[in-house]
Amino acid sequence: MTEERPRVIVTTDMEVDDMNSVVHLALHLNELDVAAFVYTASQYHFQGDGSHTLAEANPHWRTKGKRAYEWPVVPHEPDPEAGALTSYRPFPEGWMERLWLGPYAEAWPHLCENGGRYPTPEELVERTYVGNVAFEGDVREETPGSNAIRDAILDDDPRTLWLLSWGGMNTIVRALMSVAERYAGTPEWDDVRDRVRRKVRVMGVADGIGQDNSWLDHGRALFPELTLWRVPFIYGGYVDAKFAQEDSIELFRAPWPEENLVRGNGPLMGAYKLYGDGRHYEGEPERFQFGEHATLDWGFEGMEPLVFAPGDFMAEGDSMTFMPLLPLGLRGADDPRFSTVLGPLFRDGEPSSVPSAAPFETPQGNPNPYLRAYQEEFAARAQWCTHGYDECNHAPVIEAVTPDLEARAGETVSLSARASDPDGDDLLPRWRYDALASTYRGEGLALLEAWEACSLDATLRVPHDARPGDRLVLTLSVRDVAERPMTRYAQVLITVA
Which residues are in the Cellulose-binding Sde182 nucleoside hydrolase-like domain (predicted)? Predict the structure, then answer.
């Protein structure tokens, strides 16, 4: 199984929502091979080095500085006075190591009983590194974290290496600079650049910028063909309890998160933060103490403060980077022509085929068909932290799925699969047309979007006006009938001949 697991490296500035993303990711460490967890800096958090200022380390910063929490309305531009900062909202050092050796260690035997091989707490400590944390965008020196990334880029592991940017890009960029410093100007340089292009994928960067300017300033010129992937749908925003889509919003509102994620699930899920849960965040100004006042006030012009109910889902702003990689049966992580749990991947700088809802507007309908099931799985896995196998739910298994096929316009195709459940639960199968990943846009589109078959065996007629080369992606979902349900998927491609 190890060879098949997606290989990832997490870089995080330890924003409060990052901490929640770490906790959530911990529940999936049997499905993702996390080669390293690396502390990094960003425009929101940096530790300082005890002797320099931000301007001395990096003259091209983006931080809003003290204006972010002292000014009623925060300007869009960076704070010109932030260059004098010697640190900024420093995060609790050693937070992940304490999580691995404490709450995770207590959950670990239960997680293994329910989900198979999880890394030991000691293995996770060995994989946790300090990167370039001193200043936003700081790439002055190699660090243990940047060297861990560099070594993973250059090793012989043939799997794609997913670099997940949860903070600034500077530690990733420092690793890329180290690769260039070693090989640029040598006969191996062209081959090394090609290896990086083929092997490395970055998630968490939008519009060519992470949470600092280091990619623009240093990385892009060295590796201009590096692939930066994005997703069309949002998960884990600070406003989800107000504006999540209609079919799922109650799973983000109190009391559901506290009752299903936190309560009775031990110290690992006890580390998961909710609005108004009474926690004080070390190093944060009062404006960002969401555990104490449950009010979101970023100082954005034209945006009134949002008051949340105690126990509302707060944030996991970086889980969007690992969610698409989870092996749930969706094929989009390996082939962007298919969906992931957050829609089809698309390259940064290119348009997405999926119109995504504005973050502060209620979306119409249910644009992401996978969101509710994903949140339900979160609740099921949270229970794994303290309960034995017989007390928990486990995902269905889908096998013998119809392989991809070609068909002519007007032809009827047959679909089939087998499914079983490890707990003996009844199963609810459903085939649906995946308009997000398909390219057919003819007169029969409305009928296709309305089509569904609630059985493992189904038939579908290809529209009469489908043209050669059109792609019709059909997704099978199988949900078990359980108190904390779980869903798995399979996807079949019909190419019009």
Answer: 7-338
Question: Residue 342: what pLDDT?
Answer: 96
Tens digits of per-residue pLDDT, 42-84? 999 999 999 999 999 999 999 999 999 999 999 999 999 999 9
In order of 240, 311, 328, the CA distances from 235 in angstroms are 8, 18, 17
Q: Answer whether 200's CB lies under 8 Å from 166's CB.
A: no
Tell me if 460 sits within 8 A of 434, measured CB to CB: no
For β-strands 458-461 and 487-496, DSSP reports them as unpaired
pLDDT at position 149 is: 98
What lies within 8 Å, CB to CB, of 151 at 6+ separation is: none
The CA-based angle 168-171-174, given to 5 degrees, is 125
Name every residue whose Cβ is closer than 8 Å to that of residue 132 and which is 6 or more positions away in sequence.
40, 41, 138, 139, 140, 141, 143, 145, 146, 170, 171, 174
What string of H, E and C letters represents the secondary structure of the chain?
Answer: CHHHCCEEEEEECCCHHHHHHHHHHHCCCCCCEEEEEEECCCCCCECCCCCCCHHHHCCCCCCCCCHHHHCCCCCCCCCCCHHHCCCECCCCCCHHHHHHHHHHHHHHHHHHHHHCCCCCHHHHHHCEEECCCCCCCCCCCCCHHHHHHHHHHHCCCCCCEEEEECCCCHHHHHHHHHHHHHHCCCCCHHHHHHHHHHHEEEECCECCECCCCHHHHHHCCCCCCCEEEECCCCCCCCCHHHHCCCCCHHHCCCCHHHHHHHCCCHHHHHCCCECCCCCCCCCCCHHHCHHHHCEECCCCCCCCCEECCCCCECCCCCHHHCHHHCCCCCCCCCCCCCCCCCCCCEECCCCCCCCCCCCCCCCCCCCCCCHHHHHHHHHHHHHHCCCCHHHCCCCCEEECCCCCEEECCCCEEEECCEEECCCCCCEEEEEEECCCCCCCCCCCHHHHHHCEECCCCEEEECCCCCCCCCEEEEEEEEEECCCCCCEEEEEEEEEEC
Q: What pLDDT, on the 0 to 100 scale, is given for residue 358? A: 46
pLDDT in tens, 323-358: 999 999 999 999 999 999 999 999 998 887 776 544
Q: pLDDT band for 365, please (50, 70, 90 cuts).
A: low
If pLDDT is split at 50, 70 and 90, which confidence band does 2 have? Answer: very low
Give the global pTM: 0.96
Query: How do residues 462-496 score in pLDDT, each as one tens digit?
Result: 999 999 999 999 999 999 999 999 999 999 999 99
